[in-house]
Design a protein that fits this description.
The complex is a heterotrimer of chains A (298), B (99) and C (401). By secondary structure, chain A is α/β, with parallel strands linked by helices. Helices cover 37% and strands 15% of the residues of chain A. Chain A has an 8-stranded mixed β-sheet with strand order 4-2-5-6-8-7-9-10, with helices on both faces. In chain A, strand 7, helix 7 and strand 8 form a beta-alpha-beta unit. Chain B has a domain of 58 residues: 2-Layer Sandwich (Alpha-Beta Plaits). Helix content of chain B is 18%, strand content 20%. Chain B contains 3 helices and 6 strands. In chain B, a hairpin with a 7-residue loop joins strand 4 and strand 5. The longest helix of chain B is centred in the N-terminal third of the chain and has 8 residues. By secondary structure, chain C is an alpha/beta fold. Chain C folds into 2 domains: 245 residues, Thiamin diphosphate (ThDP)-binding fold, Pyr/PP domains (Rossmann fold, 3-Layer(aba) Sandwich); 122 residues, Rossmann fold, CATH 3.40.50.920. Chain C contains 12 helices and 16 strands. A 5-stranded mixed β-sheet of chain C has the order 5-6-8-7-14. Chain C is globular and about 70 Å long. Classes of the chains: A alpha/beta (298), B alpha+beta (99), C alpha/beta (401). The interface between A and C is large, with 44 and 43 residues.
Amino acid sequence: MYEIKHQSRGLVSHGTTACAGCGLELIMRKVMDVVGEDTIIVIPPGCSALFSGFGKETNLKIAGVQMNLENTAACCSGIRAALDAQGNTHTTVLGFAGDGGTLDIGLQALSGAFERGDRIMYICYDNEAYMNTGIQGSSATPYGASTTTTPGGKRQPKKDLMMIAMAHHIPYAATASLQNLNDLKKKIEKAKNAQGPSLLHIHTPCPTGWRFHSSLSIELARAAVRTGSWILYEYENGKITINSKPKELQPLETYIGKQGRFRHLSQEQRDAMEKEIKENFYAYTSMLERMNVPVETV
Amino acid sequence: MQKQQENAMKTTKKYKVLGPVATQFGAATTGNWRLERPDVDFSRCTKCRTCERNCPTNVIEIKKDQEECVVINFDYCKGCGVCTNVCPQQCINLIEERR
Amino acid sequence: MSYKMLDGNTAAAEALKLGRVKVIASYPITPQTVIPETLSEMVESGDLDAQYVRVESEHSALSVVTCAAMAGVRASTATASNGLALMHEVVGMTSGNRVPVVMPVVNRGIAAPWSLWCEHVDTMCERDMGWLQFYCQNVQEVLDLTLIAFRVSEDARVLLPTMVCLDGFFLSHSMQKVTMPEQEKVDQFIGEYKNKNVYLDPTDPMFLSDLTGNEEYTEMRYQQKLALDASVTVLEEAFKEFEKEFGRKYELVEGYMTQDADVVLVALGSMCGTAQYVVNQMRKEGKKVGLLKVTVFRPFPAEYIRKLVGSASVVGVFDRSAGLGGDGGPVFYEICSALRNQPTQVYHYVGGIGGRDVRVETIEMIYDELLAIKAGETTQHTEWIDLKEDALELREVIKNV
């Protein structure tokens, strides 16, 4: 058990070395509030590894292990198998990886765990680049965003994690945002209680990587949803629910205008991007509503 | 939380272990990072707890029965300013950190 | 006494069953596929009470097993060749985090060129990662050494994982008569899996494998070195008890007719059987040859080598891997290092790679050469002992001109 060197409210210590205004830090606290201490967490290298700790000290008051970048989901499967073998069905097995460790290098392991139907809770905090190593592009970097490896703006669209998850027919998958903490909390609870693999894909504003003032994290999370740049929906036992469908989407400038990673875009490019995002929002959510993906049971 | 506190009250013994493992729950003094600090106008605060809920470091505590109802732990506050941004009353401002 | 006809793969599966593993990660690769298949049947029929995790790659296989063991149960997987190469990153995690996993590895070459057949390069590439390594000569050894591996790996003085290596096809697919140990005796010998050192338990939390600075890393690595040193004693104890309980004797290194030998050959794996046959034949002809059979390659038993080499002044080392770019191969370096303060002449041989059979003739050629060197009759040394003469003439293409 841990030697407590620091008193904290909740299972995460207050003095973590996450950047000021870090969206991930807020997500980690909300997740820990819901999952509680009967949890084993698997964290890969990346921003979330700040919480694993350094040397003797950790920032998390629960049992956990820092494994490799590729295998978060596989490690969760292993822990779940071990717990099942011991008759322990109550402990939550939680994988907590970033967009790189989920959609790029971690995709194979994720797919394997989902296909097997292993009862693991997988959270992807999406700050839309490999942030911890210094803001390099990942497949989750949105179209047009500048990173150190996509300096002129990414030329490919963002890879769709939810579609991949739904293709595996898992019992629960949802996107989430910091703009509505109650919605986030409900989704964490549902993901925790799913009878099979669950996925939460959480939009994670990053002041350092997206280049905005640290105070704007929540404002930008909200702007992403209101401009249609981040679509909030749930997939629950084959049924899809769109959580937020604004009648009118806000101007894209309210979202990208304050972010340095989009600064290089010309007005023409911004207009084109706004048109595309708005059209896609309606097309995509309509398609989602028409989908009724059956969940296979044995 | 309760289970861990219960465990803490039982008698304990220390054992040596091998390999990389964190055995202490600790914190860095992130309060040292601050260049600006949040300054609350308590008279306009409605104690809605929005700042408390959205603080990434969870260092804000609303004490309803106090006049200085927004208690911030400046040992750890990083001065990010999220509280100033989310407050519905706009009654928190960032001011320069005193040294 | 109960006997079964088993090949190396089924013997490995039987050993994992006797060891009562609770989590199995399964991924197929030639020539190991019979191991996950057999385990699958055992689990399906209820013969083996275990969680069977059909993973999507070997990297995930070892990840599942390492984390399952951290979470409190005996866990295992098996692999070969490129599969082991793919796992390499995780091999470091298992060992560095002191997780006592036992993994049979069916020795097969690593591409390119693509080969399905026997070579030691796959496990030799892992030799510095902090795992114990055993090399089996026959199918009985596959079974026995896997059981011994559980006992040694899980010992509190060791807490390091073990690879039990068996030659691809020559052992994995070779049907031999195996004495089956009784389950109760195995339970007694191995004991129950217990959480020791660090583990994942929500009621007793700690955070494993976090970032370590340079002020502590060296010392942690040294902890592993000390464990490998200590494992020699633990191995001796385990071998002794195994002999007492099951009647079969094992040693870290076996000196076969080495006491009075003029020349000695060092070898690993199934070719030791062939070599012992050749020693017997040559001894009948009055040639004083001996064989040093290395069963435990990691930790490398340098002290034992020095004792057993004794008065032999010429030693040949048979590497079943090429050791490219080096002045010899992995086993050769170890022997040279062990004998560095002695005037023994050590000669390197490469052979049996990519599934080439190590035949009686091959071993005879080596011994004859070593004897000739010792007698001062020749200075010729044929390093690549089974090399064909047309090495550069293998392929021709037709092109337009």
